[in-house]
Amino acid sequence: MKENELLNVLKEHGQEHIVEAYQKLDDKGKEKLAAQIERIDWSIVEMAGHKELAQERGKLEPLSALEVTEIEKNKAKYEEIGLDAIRAGKVGAVLLAGGQGTRLGSDGPKGKYNIGLTKEVFIFERLIRNLLDVTDKAGCFVPLYVMTSDKNHDETVAFFAEKDFFGYPEEFVKFFKQEMAPSVDFQGKLYMESADSLSLSPNGNGGWFYSMAVTGVLKDVKARGVEWLNIFAVDNVLQRIADPVFVGATIDSGCVSGAKVVRKADPEEKIGVLCLEDGRPSIVEYYEMTEEIINSREADGELSYNFGVILNYLFRVEQLEEIANQKMTVHVVEKKIPFIDENGTLVKPESPNGYKFELLVLDMIHMFENCLSYEVVRDYEFAPIKNKTGVDSVESARALLQKNGVEL
Ligand code: UTP
Q1: Which label site among 78, 105, 154, 361 has the fewest CB atoms less than 10 Å from its CB?
Q2: Is 392 exposed, middle or buried (0-12, 13-18, 19+ CB in 10 A)?
């Protein structure tokens, strides 16, 4: 884009302060800032003024799950189907590790966090060990795609290299960066984090497939003949990755996607629930549900909306490609955004001072025709690390790991 065009675009969108900042820069600075501005999706930035236009939900109905008792009965069959798919090279895994882990308060990649007590046990290490359980059984490796962001890519790659990929073969691991999104103040003005850079942050965990495509990593998926991708979060240290029983059950069900779910601890638990919305699978957040829906019960007394997602999904690559160009919901989220003030001083606010724009992987579920809701036992498969202490913390995850026989 030519310089005058670039400056006009900024003015058209009411960003005169960025024009001013740009004009103060030397050629190198101008080039850097211009490249960031050119990548801005203005339709997203404009959503800051329409935060109140939260999406109306369609008609919600319960979606029954394949429950643990049923899975146990057919476990051998499902596992065989899953292991066959893995051995045929049809299953890949995608680790979403582009987040900033702000609640944990550690700078750098969350996967580098050491959760050990008597020895070093890194989050990434735990995840790779979990995956190795499966690959040992299958007798072959599963391609692992690791999503990072500009904020943590180099550190993540260097850490894997330093730790010899935790025993996983390097040729089966590929890193790719997710997109970054700008942040704005409550009036929609772009924030800057330094004289020649906008305040950019990872655009949420929902853009992973788009990022796989634009970075070229999808070519590897296709070249290897991978038909299913298992998407999982960095912070659940107990999760089973490329779980053959889950893979087998999903294939056997004929569904084009699958989601691991846990039974809600109580009706009010703050967890996204997998259900049907206008006849299609959908994940509805706890704050989007009415009291009536939250407390609704089936004839047998069970909660109608009883199963919450744990960010472990299985998607068919063919269907992912079909929906790749569909627009995803952009979530406008109030956050604390570091910025430089008019004197060029970096300010780290104590309370939210603007909006970030995020895409969420849970919104993808509604783009699929169907989804197998697959129940897992919380204590065996769900130990998320979001906070330092308390609920979903390093402490609670350690206790669950120890309960499952993991030495820390
Ligand atoms: P969370 O929503 O818990 O966010 O991410 P977070 O960034 O890790 O932590 P907080 O909210 O700042 O404390 C759930 C999963 O999605 C990934 C995270 O790395 C984690 O595996 N994620 C999140 C991304 O890959 N990219 C993002 O932009 C955001």
Answers
A1: 105
A2: middle
- Radius of gyration for the chain, computed over Cα atoms and rounded to the nearest angstrom: 22
Name the residue of 44, 94, 96 whose CB sits within 8 Å of the most ligand 1 atoms, as the mutation to test its pocket: 96
pLDDT digits (tens, 9 = 90+) for 150-185: 999 999 999 999 999 999 999 999 999 999 999 999
Q: Whose alpha carbon is nearest atom 10 of ligand 1?
A: 101
- What ranges make up the beta strands (E) of 20-74? 60-61
Q: What CATH number should be reported for the domain whose range is 58-403?
A: 3.90.550.10
Q: How many residues does the chain have?
A: 408
Angle between helix 208-215 and helix 217-224 axes, rounded to 10 deg:
90
| Rounded Cα gap, residues 294 and 299, in angstroms | 15
Give the pLDDT confidence of 34-56 residue by residue, as tens digits.
999 999 989 889 888 766 555 67
Tell me the domain boundaries of the chain: 58-403
Give the separation between CA 195 and CA 341, rounded to whole angstroms: 10
Q: Is the CB of 204 under 6 A from ligand 1?
A: yes
Distance of CA 233 to the CA centre of its chain: 6
What six digits make up the tokens of 75? Answer: 């476990």
